[in-house]
Amino acid sequence: MRLAQLERPTDLARVLVVDDHRTFAELLSGALASAGMDAIGTAHSAAQAVAMAQDLQPDIVVMDIEMPRQDGLAATRRIREVAPDAVVAVVTAHRDPDWVVRAAQAGASAFIPKDGSLAEMIDVLSRVQPGQMLVAPSTFAGGAPRTSSAGNRGAVPQLTRREQEVLDCLGRGMQVKAIARVLGITLETCRGYVKSLHAKLGVRSQLEAVVKAQQLGLLSAADER
What tens digit of pLDDT does each residue of 35-59 get? Predict the structure, then answer.
């Protein structure tokens, strides 16, 4: 996917890379620049990241979660305050769904495994939008599904056709009102399907529903395009 497909103005997306490993940060910054993004700088600590984000006002911040003194999630919260128009994509070795939820709660808009491919990272960065959590497909690839608190621990729930359609829409980052409009159903009916999905997946939020569905193979990479 070419980065020219970014749903932004004709200017290149301006990206700040944050990682305490200088070599990794510089190599990633160079790779993103080669892929068609405007790599405006690298930061190597949370404090430096916040200061640079405030000064440079980037479009995207690629944030390593694990850094000394202050972690990337704390930095993400501060960056959302000082650069509210920026979207933050966290990059981490963690693959536990709890980390996806924690990243979203901190204000991140994308979750990317650090050992994933560069092509996948570029694809995610080209599609990330404010107000959603876009999880890279490889996040749970090859991993055993985690058990849930629901009665059918670890089991793949059977979904109706309409529930699957609603879930696919959630996986694309759509809100309930938009899903209802696209599927031609009432808002209350759509909320009912979402509630049913929560119960079947053993989750309590739409974000957790998408993460759990990805774990269980209920969302394909095609559903996320």
Answer: 899 999 999 999 999 999 999 999 9
Tell whether pTM > 0.90: no
Please tell me whether residues 103 and 177 are part of one structural domain.
no
Structure tokens at 22: 């200088």
Q: Place 153 in a pLDDT band, splitting at 50, 70 and 90.
A: very low
Q: What is the pLDDT of residues 69-80, one digit of tens each?
A: 888 999 999 999
- How far is 54 from 34, CA to CA, in rounded Å? 25
Structural domain that includes position 120? 14-140
CA 211 to chain centre: 10
Residue 9 belongs to a domain: no
Three-state SS sequence of the chain: CCHHHCCCCCCCCEEEEECCCHHHHHHHHHHHHHCCCEEEEEECCHHHHHHHHHHHCCCEEEEECCCCCCCHHHHHHHHHHHCCCCEEEEEECCCCHHHHHHHHHHCCCEEEECCCCHHHHHHHHHHCCCCCCEECHHHHCCCCCCCCCCCCCCCCCCCCHHHHHHHHHHHCCCCHHHHHHHHCCCHHHHHHHHHHHHHHHCCCCHHHHHHHHHHCCCCCHHHHC
Residue 145 lies in a domain: no
Residues 129, 19: one domain?
yes
